[in-house]
Amino acid sequence: MRAAKASGLDAFGYNRSMDGVEAARFDGFDASNSLDGVLDRAAQADALIVLAVPMPALPIMLDHIRSTAPDCALTDVTSVKGAVLQAVRKHGLADRFVGGHPMAGTAHSGWAAGDAKLFVGAPWVLSVDDGVDPAVWATVMHLALACGSFVVPARSDEHDAAAAAISHLPHLLAETLAATAGHVPLAFALAAGSFRDGTRVAATAPDLVRAMCEANSEQLLGSLDQAIDLLTRARASLAGSGSVAELVETGHAARMRYDSFSRPQILTTTIGAPDWRDELAAAGRAGGVIRSALPVLGSPG
Amino acid sequence: MRAAKASGLDAFGYNRSMDGVEAARFDGFDASNSLDGVLDRAAQADALIVLAVPMPALPIMLDHIRSTAPDCALTDVTSVKGAVLQAVRKHGLADRFVGGHPMAGTAHSGWAAGDAKLFVGAPWVLSVDDGVDPAVWATVMHLALACGSFVVPARSDEHDAAAAAISHLPHLLAETLAATAGHVPLAFALAAGSFRDGTRVAATAPDLVRAMCEANSEQLLGSLDQAIDLLTRARASLAGSGSVAELVETGHAARMRYDSFSRPQILTTTIGAPDWRDELAAAGRAGGVIRSALPVLGSPG
């Protein structure tokens, strides 16, 4: 709400906590703790609804939206996309829904933790799943750009597979490294840079790590299988021939590709044109990002 | 040689490269490319010989030392300790040998990469294996302290097990993470902090990673088995009950223990007193370090 308002957009919000609502009002924002009141206003104004609740709170919010504001454009900011899409579909709201994941945040929560600049320069993933509506997509794209983010278009399943590999697997590897070293006398006495870096995210609160990993279990299982397979093969090679060449060379080559990974700007796609979703998914996969609004078919430029 | 001389010790050195020798001489150091000449001088001066060569060069150096300076005190600065100890024993030089591992360095090599301050504030592991000589141990301890390091006493096998867990395993996990993400479309497009940290050491030159891992293969196999076992159990638990609680809680607890790990100073051991080696090994295991010279039995304080 802070970022949207700072960019000149009209914004009003709901929070179940009266303390949060009062803090927001004190700072001059339009907030209420009446869910149906806010949703009714959203329906009247034909607003874009941005769901910013944890997964467990999602079904009850979707129940209320279906009753009170079923025709509003709808997006979310949850870190898993497949499970949210399933819940939205189950509630019959998929026609007006475009999943989102702004990749920015802090370890804190509540009104005081907000920051109008939080999204500046951050990737904001927007889902290009089969059937997403071009007009809703454009609306959410404008919000993300207005908040200072660049947009990464991605299918929900690919987003979740990537998140498993680059966020959830690193957490489990860090836990594994800390746990393994924790059993070795003298290990902490000698630990230096590679151990500190490799276990940094193991300092994250266990509940947060569990929540993110367990909510993406299907995709994380695939990443874990890959990692276990690579380590098992390296172990066999080290025991058999004294060499870890294959793993080390593959890993190094991948890290070098990452270091030289570029983010070309997506410029030529028209939202709503034939195959626009597949085109954006392919561009996002190749590192492409949207930094200024793409045109929408049938709309004045 | 720079650090020893800066601390006021007498030092002279050998390098096989005439370029290196000339660069050292140009900077005012006493260097030569005649190995037997330098070893002969060492024998005359009853010097401490510090071996600073890669593992493959070790046997030929030990051959020369056995022929020319077999009674000199001897130490090394190699990152694995068990394999060096074996080679030293094979050459019949174990009586005068105390293995060392100053945990400091740069990615560069050659004379120009040296720095008299390199060892300041760094742990310098000294081996307390069965039978190490108290007088030689004290001599090497004085060198390490003179260079600005603190001394961590450790048995060679425990050093290597700890190095496997806190240095070699982190490298292989980083390679695994990079290689796994490298196969996932969109992964690099979404990669952020936990991926960057988790793969940082995968940017190290593959030859260096292989050399350190493969030279410590026996201990690394144990660490790899532990890591694979932890990941396999987490995978089964995630697939079966949707939970990664066990791994996450164990890893987090270990990382918290590491964050609060303290380094008490070792003050009460007398080098050469009964059980001094076991006493130092136990103190080092508990995080103890030597910051000022311990007394030696029978020597004036």
Automatic annotation (TrEMBL), chains A, B:
InterPro entries: 6-PGluconate_DH-like_C_sf, NAD(P)-bd_dom_sf, PDH_C, PDH_N, Preph/Arog_dehydrog, Prephen_DH
GO biological process per UniProt: tyrosine biosynthetic process
Name of the featured protein: Prephenate dehydrogenase
Family affiliation: Belongs to the prephenate/arogenate dehydrogenase family.
Top-level taxon in the UniProt lineage: Bacteria
Keyword Cell cycle: no
Keyword Protein transport appears in the UniProt entry: no
Annotated ranges, domain Prephenate/arogenate dehydrogenase: 1-269
UniProt GO molecular function: NAD+ binding; prephenate dehydrogenase (NAD+) activity; prephenate dehydrogenase (NADP+) activity
Record key words, sorted: Oxidoreductase
